[in-house]
């Protein structure tokens, strides 16, 4: 099921587990221990948090990407998937407007 939290809330929860400045290997280990799984993109500097196996047995699909500096430390989070639905709706509106 999709996480019942918006991106900012998901990001906050993840950063409570692996704070900014955490080395990559340690951050991934801490996330895995907390039940959060994911995978690296084609770049080893972006880790996509995909699924959170919660203690109550529920599974949340996440939308958070972790960005790592060249030295391997976590420096930022961003949405893993862009929300393009608003742009698509705007384009449809523009096309039907007189």
Keywords:
alpha+beta; 98 residues; four-stranded antiparallel beta sheet; 3 helices
Largest sheet: 4 strands, antiparallel
* Helical content (DSSP H or I, runs of 4+): 25-40%
Overall pLDDT confidence: 85
Return the structural class.
alpha+beta
Which value, in Å, is the CA radius of gyration?
A: 16 Å
Give the oligomeric state.
single chain
- Total number of strands: 4
Please describe the topology of this protein.
Elements: H1 7-17, H2 24-33, E1 36-40, E2 46-53, E3 59-68, E4 74-79, H3 85-96
Q: Could you characterize what this model shows?
A:
The chain is an alpha+beta fold and 98 residues long. It has 3 helices and 4 strands. Strand 1 and strand 2 (46-53) form a beta hairpin. Strands 1-2-3-4 form a 4-stranded antiparallel beta sheet. The protein is globular. It has helices at residues 7-17, 24-33, 85-96, and strands at 36-40, 46-53, 59-68, 74-79. Mean pLDDT is 85; it is low at 84-98.
Task: Give a summary of the structure in a few sentences.
It is built from three helices and four strands; from the N terminus they run ααββββα.
